[in-house]
Write a structure and sequence with these properties.
Layout lengths: L11 H17 L18 E6 L5 H12 L3 E6 L11 H11 L2 E5 L3 H10 L4 E3 L7 H15 L6 E5 L4 H13 L2 E5 L8 H9 L5 E2 L3 H5 L4 E4 L12 H8 L6 H4 L7 E4 L11 H4 L6 H20 L2
Parallel strand pairs: 1-2, 1-3, 3-4, 5-6, 5-8, 6-7, 8-9
Bound molecules: phosphoric acid mono(formamide)ester and norvaline (NVA).
The site of phosphoric acid mono(formamide)ester has 9 residues, from α2.
């Protein structure tokens, strides 16, 4: 049994196998209707709990559809509907759910809640986003880059904006997949020191470059995300906007990257804030391939977790 809790907690060979499996599964069902079952039905007889303590469009729909395509069933639960949100411990919730379902995907707040759930569950647990990381997203992003441009190893990736949960998983991926990552954002919104240390220890130290034009120069991939994440207090909104405005990804900034560079954003986006529509809908953008690849990457993650 394998949990998928974070990219830095997963063996690089397993990460590579997951990406390759995702690609193969995507190719195998090309052109078929979304609801068509995969031929091998690897999740036949399995039921998967999808728990959301925060809103979601992509994670919710892609996991649900992915399980159905593989022949399994889903239960979508929101934290507020569960006893978890009303005093039952995470450990007891993990023990009970493990008696009913074969796999648990959870989107929650603190990383420690995810780790506690995994510690006490006797079925695999998948991280569907915490305040600190978003590994499923970055697996889809690596898959998307490689689909368009070949191996990501050794390529230059630049992040513009908040050093948030999605960035932390990208930093973990830099270490595990071996690409060069530059962070460009204000010092007050610097990334998690542990994520930076992980990449450094893996021989891929993350470059911190405060000037966005310098940071993006020569990049193969430019990535950004919302300036205010779900766990951030709305009272910080104006301050964050003022600090992050110089890091907006617009056509002028993208012109500094390589001519064949890609642009990614995990979505949901606030158009004309962190990125302009001209970039999001422009020739470098692969944002909707990224969204689609959540489905394929997560199907491969679920198979890996269950060994099916
Ligand atoms: N990118 C992503 O995780 O989107 P949702 O919040 O809609 O799931
Ligand atoms: N950083 C964002 C990602 C949303 C998918 C958030 O946590 O709200």
């Amino acid at each position: 049994m394998n949990h998928f809790l974070d990219i830095h907690r997963t063996d690089p060979a397993d990460l590579r196998a997951i990406i390759d499996d995702a690609r193969a599964m995507k190719d195998a069902r090309a052109g078929r209707p979304k609801g068509a079952k995969d031929d091998d039905q690897p999740l036949g007889g399995h039921v998967v709990a999808l728990i959301f303590e925060k809103p979601s469009t992509r994670t919710r729909v892609s996991f649900d559809v992915g399980v159905r395509q593989m022949g399994g069933e889903t239960l979508v639960l929101t934290g507020s509907e569960m006893q978890l949100g009303h005093g039952e411990t995470i450990a007891d919730t993990a023990r009970v759910l493990s008696r009913y379902v074969d796999l648990i995907m959870i989107r929650t707040f603190d990383q420690d809640a995810l780790l506690e759930l995994a510690e006490h569950a006797t079925v695999p647990v998948i991280n569907g986003l915490t305040n600190q990381s978003h590994p499923c997203q970055i697996m889809a992003d690596v898959m998307t880059f490689e689909e368009h441009r070949g191996p990501i190893a050794g390529r230059k990736v630049t992040w513009c904006g908040d050093g948030n949960n999605v960035f932390a998983s990208l930093a973990h991926a830099a270490g595990q997949f071996g690409f060069d990552l530059t962070f460009s954002g204000p010092e007050t919104l610097d990334p998690d020191a542990k994520a930076l240390a992980f990449a450094r220890d893996k021989g891929r130290p993350i470059i911190i470059e405060r000037d966005p034009e310098t940071a993006v120069t020569g990049a193969d991939l430019v990535v950004t995300d919302t300036w205010v994440s779900m766990h951030d207090s709305q009272t910080t909104r104006e301050r964050r906007h003022n600090q992050l405005r110089p890091y907006q990804v617009n056509e002028r900034l993208m012109s500094k990257a390589k001519p064949d560079s890609l642009f990614m954003h995990c979505l949901p986006a606030h158009r004309e804030e962190e990125a302009t529509s001209a970039v999001m809908d422009g020739p470098h953008s692969v944002i909707f391939d990224e969204a689609e690849n959540r489905l394929h990457a997560q199907k491969a993650i679920m198979r890996w977790c269950l060994g099916v």
